[in-house]
C-alpha cells in the first residue's frame, strides 16, 4: 500500500507516523510546499517577542529525523498542483529543480492546512512591512525585518489568538502597539463582559485599541506608513501584522468530487474520510463537529490537527480510532492574564435549543492567605436537564487547570451538580477547600433549581424597562457608600432579618454582596421568611461594576 500525504506540519506528520507504527510494509511519502516541516505555529509569536531564543527551537524535527525514526520520505519544496482521485494520481512540482512529475497513490491525505486572510486594502506584495504570522517563512521574514529596521510602532489587525499574542510579545519588546478590530470588542470568541477584562489589560499596558473600525486606505510607497480607518483615525506605523483569521486551504479539491462542508472546510466522517474513496483530510483543511450540538464547526488548532492525523493514519492501516468531535476549548496568555474558554456560550446554547442558565463566579485560584488571586468564571448549564454546557475564565492564575476540568466535564456530559461532587486535589497553595470548579457547579445547580441568579445585564435591562424590583445591598454601609447598584437599599447582612420589615415580599427582589457568597445566604433567608421571588446578582457588586465599565457607564 502506498500512502501519499500532502502537507507536513502538525496533521500530516501525525498521519505518516501513525501509519508507520501500524504498518511496516506501507510505502509512505509526504510532500511539503515549504522548506520547514513539523514546526510550531503557536510558538511563533514567542520567538518574535524574544521569549524563545532560537527559531530552531520551533522546528524540533527535520526530514532526516523522520526518515531514521519512521522510514518514510518527506520531500520539501514540492508543491502539489493537482490531484486526480479517479486515476489515483497527483501532480507535483519540484520547486528546486523546476520540473514537475506525477505520483501515484493508494491512499491520499490532504493536510494542506489553512491560509491567512489579507482583506482590502492590505497587500503583502505591495508593502514590504505587512506580514502574516502563519508559516515559518513568515516568522523568519518578520524577524529579519525587525532586525534590519528601527521598529517603534506596530499595528496589529485582528484580535484573535495570534493578534493578541503578537500584541503582548511586541509590547514586551518595547514597541508601541495599536490593535484594529472590526468587531465591537477584542477577542470576539468570548462574551463581551468577559472580553472587557482583556481590553482593560491592553489599555493598562499602553496598547491603543481601535474597536468597531477597519483600515480603509494605506499611505506609503513600498512601506505602509499610515493606516487610515473608517472612523477617520490615522495610525502611524512601522510594521503591520495581519491576524484577521484563516480559511481552509481547499484549492486542491476543485473538480475532484471532494465535498466541502457547511463551514467551507472539507467534509469528513469520523475516520477523516472525504466523500471520495481512499482520500482523507486532516487538520486545518478538515471540518470538525461540535461534541455538544453535533453541528459542523471549523476549529483550527494544532492539538486538533495532531488528533485528526493520528486517527486517519490509524484507520487507513486497519485501526479502530475515530474522531469524537471538539468542544471549542481554547486558552491564551496576555501579559499576566490568562483567558480560557470551552463549550457553549449562553447565546450559542440558546441557538442550539437549550434553555441556558448563566452564573458568574469570582473566586481565588488558591487560598488567599498564600497569595491566591481571583479568577472570574462565567458558566452555562441547561436549565431543564442540568447538563453543563460551557465556561469562560479570565484571571492571573489557575485558569488552565479549571478550564481543562470544565472541558473534561463537558466531554463526558456531566451535569452542573456533578462538578460539585468532583474529588479535586486540595492544599492551600493549589486550591481552596471548595475549589472554584466545585463552587461553579453548586451555584449553577442552585440557580437552575430554586435559587435563581440575575446577571448585571438582565438587571439593568429590567430597570430600564421600568420593572418593579427591590434591590438590596447586604454589604457594610461603608462599602455601600463607595459604590452600589442604582436604586439599591443598604441593609447589611447582620440586620437583614429586621431590616426588610418595610419591603414588599411579593415583589421580585435582587440581593448582592461583593462577589456573591453572602448574598446567597441572604437569598435563603428572604425566601425562608416569605419573600416570593429572590435573585442573587451574579458575581455581586464586583461583577456589576465590571459590566458597567464594559458598557461604558
UniProtKB/TrEMBL annotation:
One Pfam match: Rhodanese
Keyword Cell cycle: no
Organism for this UniProt entry: Alkalibacterium pelagium
Keywords, sorted A to Z: FAD, Flavoprotein, Oxidation, Oxidoreductase, Redox-active center
Needed cofactors: FAD
Protein name per UniProt: NADPH-dependent 2,4-dienoyl-CoA reductase, sulfur reductase
InterPro entries documented for this protein: FAD-bd_OxRdtase, FAD/NAD-bd_sf, FAD/NAD-binding_dom, FAD/NAD-linked_Rdtase_dimer_sf, Pyr_nucl-diS_OxRdtase_dimer, Rhodanese-like_dom, Rhodanese-like_dom_sf
All copies of domain Rhodanese, residue ranges: 465-553
Gene3D superfamilies according to UniProt: FAD/NAD(P)-binding domain, Rhodanese-like domain
Similarity annotation: Belongs to the class-III pyridine nucleotide-disulfide oxidoreductase family.
The UniProt record lists the keyword NADP: no
GO MF assignments: oxidoreductase activity
Amino acid at each position: 500500500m502506498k500512502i501519499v500525504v500532502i502537507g507536513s506540519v502538525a496533521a500530516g506528520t501525525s498521519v505518516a507516523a501513525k501509519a508507520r507504527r501500524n504498518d511496516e510494509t506501507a510505502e509512505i511519502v509526504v510532500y511539503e510546499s515549504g522548506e520547514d516541516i513539523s514546526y510550531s505555529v503557536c510558538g511563533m509569536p514567542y520567538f518574535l517577542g524574544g521569549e524563545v531564543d532560537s527559531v530552531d527551537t520551533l522546528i524540533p524535527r527535520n526530514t532526516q529525523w523522520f526518515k531514521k525514526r519512521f522510514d518514510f520520505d518527506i520531500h520539501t519544496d514540492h508543491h502539489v498542483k493537482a490531484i486526480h482521485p479517479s486515476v489515483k494520481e497527483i501532480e507535483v512540482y519540484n520547486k528546486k529543480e523546476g520540473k514537475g512529475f506525477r505520483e501515484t497513490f493508494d491512499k491520499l491525505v490532504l493536510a494542506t492546512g489553512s491560509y491567512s486572510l489579507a482583506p482590502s486594502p492590505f497587500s503583502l506584495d505591495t508593502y514590504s512591512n505587512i506580514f502574516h504570522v502563519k508559516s515559518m517563512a513568515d516568522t523568519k521574514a518578520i524577524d529579519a525585518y525587525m532586525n534590519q529596521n528601527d521598529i517603534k510602532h506596530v499595528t496589529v489587525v485582528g484580535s484573535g489568538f495570534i493578534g493578541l499574542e503578537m500584541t503582548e510579545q511586541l509590547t514586551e519588546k518595547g514597541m508601541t502597539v495599536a490593535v484594529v478590530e472590526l468587531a465591537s470588542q477584542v477577542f470576539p470568541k468570548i462574551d463581551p463582559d468577559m472580553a472587557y477584562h482583556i481590553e482593560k489589560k491592553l489599555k493598562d499596558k499602553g496598547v491603543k485599541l481601535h474597536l468597531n473600525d477597519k483600515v480603509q486606505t494605506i499611505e506609503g510607497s513600498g512601506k505602509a506608513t499610515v493606516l487610515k480607518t473608517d472612523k477617520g483615525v490615522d495610525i502611524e506605523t512601522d510594521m503591520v501584522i495581519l491576524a484577521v483569521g484563516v480559511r481552509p486551504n481547499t484549492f486542491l479539491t476543485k473538480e475532484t468530487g471532494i465535498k466541502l462542508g457547511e463551514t467551507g472546510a472539507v467534509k469528513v466522517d469520523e475516520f477523516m474520510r472525504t466523500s471520495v474513496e481512499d482520500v482523507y483530510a486532516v487538520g486545518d483543511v478538515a471540518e470538525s463537529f461540535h461534541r455538544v450540538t453535533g453541528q459542523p464547526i471549523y476549529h483550527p488548532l494544532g492539538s486538533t490537527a495532531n488528533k485528526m492525523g493520528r486517527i486517519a493514519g490509524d484507520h487507513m492501516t486497519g485501526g479502530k480510532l475515530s474522531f469524537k468531535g471538539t468542544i471549542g476549548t481554547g486558552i491564551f496568555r496576555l501579559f499576566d492574564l490568562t483567558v480560557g474558554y470551552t463549550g457553549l456560550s449562553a447565546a450559542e446554547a440558546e441557538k442550539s435549543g437549550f434553555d441556558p442558565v448563566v452564573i458568574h463566579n469570582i473566586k481565588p485560584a488558591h487560598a488567599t492567605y498564600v497569595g491566591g488571586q481571583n479568577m472570574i468564571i462565567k458558566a452555562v448549564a441547561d436549565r431543564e436537564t442540568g447538563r453543563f454546557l460551557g465556561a469562560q475564565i479570565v484571571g492571573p492564575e489557575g485558569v488552565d487547570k479549571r478550564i481543562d476540568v470544565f472541558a473534561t466535564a463537558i466531554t463526558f456530559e456531566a451535569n452542573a451538580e456533578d462538578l460539585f461532587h468532583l474529588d479535586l486535589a486540595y492544599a492551600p497553595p493549589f486550591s481552596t477547600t471548595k475549589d472554584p470548579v466545585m463552587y461553579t457547579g453548586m451555584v449553577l445547580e442552585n440557580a437552575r433549581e430554586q435559587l435563581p441568579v440575575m446577571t448585571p445585564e438582565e438587571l439593568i435591562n429590567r430597570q430600564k424597562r421600568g420593572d418593579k424590583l427591590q434591590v438590596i445591598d447586604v454589604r457594610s454601609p461603608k462599602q455601600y457608600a463607595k459604590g452600589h447598584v442604582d436604586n439599591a437599599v443598604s441593609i447589611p447582612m447582620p440586620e437583614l432579618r429586621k431590616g426588610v420589615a418595610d419591603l414588599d415580599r411579593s415583589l421580585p427582589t435582587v440581593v448582592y454582596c461583593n462577589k456573591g457568597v453572602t448574598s446567597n445566604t441572604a437569598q435563603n433567608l428572604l425566601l425562608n421568611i416569605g419573600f416570593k421571588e429572590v435573585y442573587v446578582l451574579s458575581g455581586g457588586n464586583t461583577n456589576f461594576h465590571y459590566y458597567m465599565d464594559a458598557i461604558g457607564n
